[in-house]
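Input.
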Amino acid sequence: MPTATVRPRESRDLAEAATVLTAVHESDGYPVEGVEDPQAWLSPEGLLAAWVAEVDGGVVGHVAINSPQPGEEVARLWREKSGDDDSRIGVLARLFVAREARKESAGKRLVEAATAYARARRLRLVLEVLTKDAAAIRLYERLGWQCIGEAVHAFGGQQVDAVCFVAPA
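Output.
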């Protein structure tokens, strides 16, 4: 398989990204929410920027940066640790890669694109990842992200444990 390339997401990418997201949910259980309307989930309140990974012209992955939203635990943790306010924080979110593209560094390239965007705007990236998503945790750790605490992710009347990370300075 050719190497994945990353580019800014365009509106025409949403349907294909939603299809990939649905397949990732079926194989990995990620995300735990949003699959009933994946295009809306990919365009949340506070969306600052998003990228897709492509192989042979087809979307195989996605990542976004959102502004911190009210009640978001990872942003609260970072505000307390750093003294930054929400204008200096970006939340890395909606990262997924199709199973067949995971050996092509698509996830790494997506995170690097988001990190470059954040650095250029002097935003510190934070994220929350469910503890069940061990491969994602390993990716963030390999890329130098640091654990800043734990959280409980609540959705649809359920609660699951999560770990919060901050991007390298």
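Residues 5-125 form a domain with the Aminopeptidase fold (CATH 3.40.630.30).
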